[in-house]
Amino acid sequence: MKSLFLSILFIIAADKFCTAQYMQLFAGNAGAYDGVHSNDLMLLSQSEVGDMDHADISGNPFWNEDWKTALLYTDKYAILVSKVKLNLYKNDIWYKTPDSLVMIAAKGQIKGITFFNGDDTTSILANFVYFKNADDKNYRYFQFMNAGKAQLIKLNTVTVNKSPFDPFTGRSELNYVTEPSYYLYYNATMTLLKGHNKEILFSILKPDASIDKWLNKNNNKLKSASDIIGFLDYLNAPTIK
C-alpha cells in the first residue's frame, strides 16, 4: 500500500499533473477508481470543526496557514477542493465547503494530498502521503520532496508545549512547537537522517567515485534539504555524467 501511494504522487509531480488528466489511481486496491470529483465533498464522511481558533494555544498547527487548492486522494477517487489545510498536530484534513463551513475529513479517509500554488493546478506546491513508519504506532502525513527512486521525506511533528506557571498571568502558556525530521526513502525502506548525511546517504545509495566531483563542483555539502534534493535528483537522472 505504502509504495503504491508513493509511486502515484511522484508520477503526478514528475508529469506536472493537472486536473484535466483523469488518472486511474490505486488500481486494484479497492475496486474501480472513479476519477476526479469536484463537487461531492460528502464522500469524505466529514465532521464540522468544533473549535477553529484554539485561542488558548499560540502558534500554528498547520503545514501552511493559508487555505490551498488541493487534490485529496482516497483509495477509490480524488476530490478537487478549493480550500484545504493540513493540521499536523492532529493529522487531520480541514477544508471549506461551498457554504464556507469548515469541515474535517474522516480520520484515515484521505490517503494522499497534492497541494497546488494558488488556483493553478499545473503548479504543484507539495505532496503528502498518509502512512505509518515501521517504528511509529501512528499514521501521519509525510511530505515527499522529490521524484525518483531515491526520495527525501519530511515529517513535521507538531506538539503542544506547556511553559512554567506564570504567577503574573495566573496561567501556564501553551504553544504549538514544530520539529522537522528527514528520511531517505529507497528500495521501500525509510532511513532517518541524523546529521551525518553524507555517510548515511553514501552507505545506502553507493554512488560511484564521480559523485564527489559533482558535489565539489556544486558546493553541495549535503547539509540542507535543498542540498540533499539536488544530490538525489542528480542520482535519479536517467544519465549521470
Could you explain the architecture of this structure?
The protein is α+β, with helices and mostly antiparallel strands. It has a domain at 2-147. Helix content is 17%, strand content 34%. It has 4 helices and 13 strands. It has helices at 2-14, 197-205, 210-217, 225-236, and strands at residues 36-37, 47-48, 57-58, 68-73, 78-87, 92-96, 102-104, 112-117, 120-131, 140-144, 151-162, 174-186, 189-193. Strands 1, 2, 3, 4, 5, 6, 7, 8, 9, 10, 11, 12 and 13 form a 13-stranded mixed sheet that branches. It is globular. The chain starts with a helix and ends in a 5-residue tail after the last helix. 23% of the residues are buried. The model is unreliable at 6-33 (pLDDT under 50).
